[in-house]
Amino acid sequence: MDKLNRRAWGLAMASVVLLAAASTARAEFPEKPVTLVVPFAAGGPSDKIARDLAEALRKRLNQTVIVENVGGAGGTLGAAKVATATADGYTLLVHHIGFATAPSLYRKLPYKGIDDFEYLGLINEAPSTLIGRTTLSAASFAELRKWIATDSTKVNLAHAGVGSASHLCGLMLQSALKAEMTTVPYKGTGPAMTDLIGGTVDLMCEQATNAVPQIEGGKVKAFAVTSKERMKLPALAAVPTLAESGLTDFSVSVWHGLYAPRNTPVPVLAKLNEALRGALKDPELIKRQEALGISVVTDSRLEPAAHKKFVEGEVARWATVIKAAGAYAD
């Protein structure tokens, strides 16, 4: 073998060794803790969901799964952190419906958009509730609707900040009622709920996850739920849907999905998707989710392609609502 051929053979063998090493590294994923970035403050609905998911994923991946809260700018800061992270599967994003509304809400995003991510599957769906201060004279949604119609601008509708689930649901509600209310933004669900309980504001459209304890405690009134069917939770079983209350086809669910940075290796994505599927069958996770009125996803949207198609549909749906309301954020 001449010198040139020996060199070529040596390079070829080196390439084989490197490819084998890379394949082995991917097969052994994860070799260190995985981080789930939640783009909202600790203690909120998304944070609770992520922590339940982290424990279920830990069992499937045989590795520590950490939850990191990166709040701010309606969830865009946390999303940007994941979009720009190393694409190795160790930094993932747990985001809700705001993932699909950000491209319409924000004129400038700190990342390119939904194409900056790999889709791992939808996690769950949760309806919201329309709740009000206990001192409101209305005892039903029909009475509430009449009260709003007298002068909607005098009705104070609270939400947890631009891009939050309560903000989006509130936009949809105003559009359906053809009523422009005075919206009152807060820096999170906690302070918004505190003021609703205290009677400072009139109404709020909030996830059942947070609303149920306040309803059960008699601290707020429940007027309707945003699901297609009535909820089975004892506190909400008698509460009608907005659709049956006269707002035909009104349905808003707050969903959560799992994402990785764009260009994460395919074998890693496959392992993460497999782990997610297993996690969503975990009896303890299902029990905790159902106790909060949340449905774990079991349909085709667990497939990455179907998950992305679903999000693209949500982007288009909410773009129409946001544009009509002129609800933009800088």
TrEMBL record:
A Pfam family it matches: TctC
Under what name is this protein listed? Tripartite-type tricarboxylate transporter receptor subunit TctC
Q: Where is the signal peptide?
A: 1-27
What domain of life does the native source organism fall in?
Bacteria
- Gene3D superfamilies reported in the protein's UniProt record: Bordetella uptake gene, domain 1, Periplasmic binding protein-like II
The species this protein was found in? Rivibacter subsaxonicus
What family, per the record? Belongs to the UPF0065 (bug) family.
Which InterPro entries does this chain map to? Answer: BUG (IPR005064), Bug_dom1 (IPR042100)
- UniProt keyword terms in alphabetical order: Receptor, Signal
